[in-house]
């Protein structure tokens, strides 16, 4: 029978593996049961009210400074009020006169700013050249004078340089002429007979040097 087979199998397993160990039971089982009981949702008739679990704050006390008790009492108001005497001026009439209706719709505009009253012609600077134009003109004149002065100084420097160059040129020509005179004197003092080679060479040297000095003088005179 099937029951006998299962019993035989169970007896064989028990004999081979030994008795079954006890089932594991957690040591926190009772604590978990208590927490589950405590956290159990309330019944429908005991529903949760809004803001019921929020902490209740203490009542708000009015703020006051520590020195409020030391302050002096406020100054009592002035009971005597000065009465302003009525003025005989009619402001309604003056406002009507000072206003101008300038459109067909009756738009109001101050008569003082309408352009119908002459007030700019009575100013002290009316009809005069503005100050900024005078300043601009003065700056322009100063720039022109500075440019003229610069040109004059440059021209004077050029004239001085030209005069100095002319004087140096004249002095150079004078020195060359003196040199030519000295060479000519030496040339004329030579003996007539050229009986040796040194005299011939000296004569040729003087002639070449005199020709070179004459060429330099002619070149410098053409520059003047």
From TrEMBL:
Annotated Gene Ontology cellular component terms: acrosomal vesicle; axonemal microtubule
UniProt key word Coiled coil: yes
Database matches in PROSITE patterns: ENKURIN
InterPro entries xrefs: Enkurin_dom (IPR027012), Enkurin_domain-protein (IPR052102)
Domain Enkurin: residue ranges: 139-224
UniProt-annotated location(s): Cell projection, Cilium; Cytoplasm, Cytoskeleton
Main localization category: other
GO MF term (any one): calmodulin binding
Coiled-coil regions, chain positions: 136-179
Alphabetical UniProt keywords: Cell projection, Coiled coil, Cytoplasm, Cytoskeleton
Region (Disordered): 61-88
Cited PANTHER family: ENKURIN, ENKURIN-RELATED
Protein name as annotated: Enkurin domain-containing protein
Annotated organism of origin: Denticeps clupeoides
Lineage, opening ranks: Eukaryota, Metazoa, Chordata, Craniata, Vertebrata
Gene from which the chain derives: ENKUR
């Amino acid at each position: 029978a099937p029951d006998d087979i299962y019993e035989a199998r169970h007896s064989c397993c028990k004999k081979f593996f030994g008795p079954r160990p006890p089932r594991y039971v957690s040591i926190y089982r009772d604590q978990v049961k208590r927490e589950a009981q405590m956290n159990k949702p309330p019944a429908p008739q005991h529903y949760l009210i809004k803001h019921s679990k929020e902490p209740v704050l203490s009542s708000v006390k009015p703020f006051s400074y520590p020195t409020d008790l030391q302050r002096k009492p406020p100054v009592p108001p002035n009971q005597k009020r000065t009465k302003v005497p009525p003025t005989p001026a009619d402001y309604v009439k003056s406002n009507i006169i000072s206003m101008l209706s300038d459109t067909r719709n009756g738009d109001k505009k101050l008569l003082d700013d309408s352009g119908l009253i002459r007030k700019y012609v009575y100013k002290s600077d009316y009809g005069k050249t503005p100050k900024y134009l005078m300043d601009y003109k003065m700056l322009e004149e100063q720039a022109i004078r500075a440019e003229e002065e610069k040109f004059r100084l440059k021209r004077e420097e050029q004239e001085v340089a030209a005069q100095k160059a002319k004087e140096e040129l004249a002095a150079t020509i004078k020195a060359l002429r003196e040199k030519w005179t000295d060479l000519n004197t030496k040339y004329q003092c030579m003996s007539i007979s050229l009986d040796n080679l040194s005299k011939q060479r000296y004569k040729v040297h003087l002639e070449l040097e005199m020709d070179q000095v004459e060429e330099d003088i002619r070149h410098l005179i053409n520059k003047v």
